[in-house]
Amino acid sequence: MIRHVVMFRFRDDADQAQRQTVYDAIAAMPEATGVTEAYAIGPDLGLAEDNFDFAVVGDFADQEAYFAYRDHPEHRRIILDIIRPAISDRASIQYEVS
User: Fold this and answer.
1) What is the pTM of this model?
2) Average pLDDT over every residue of 18-47
3) What is the four-CA torsion angle of 89, 54, 70, 83, rounded to 10 degrees?
4) CB neighbours of residue 46 within 10 Å
5) Cβ(5)–Cβ(93) under 8 Å?
6) Nearest 5 degrees, angle CA 51-CA 59-CA 9?
């Protein structure tokens, strides 16, 4: 199984409506792509300084499923049209879960 973790920092000028649009678009990703085994998203709780603002964790059966998600046209559209305009920083990692 492949686990994909992404964290975002929103731009200072990203208002609540824009942040909600990002959340809603990311929440729709499993249904749009149809390849996730498990998927969790959420905003940071503010329990520590310097955290990222938002995280996504997706599990995929294998590398092929992850690549299908990563390269899916709807995923690409959401990244380009919705996420990138709202964020200032992004970190991600993919690793194998046994």
Assistant:
1) 0.92
2) 95
3) -60
4) 8
5) yes
6) 20
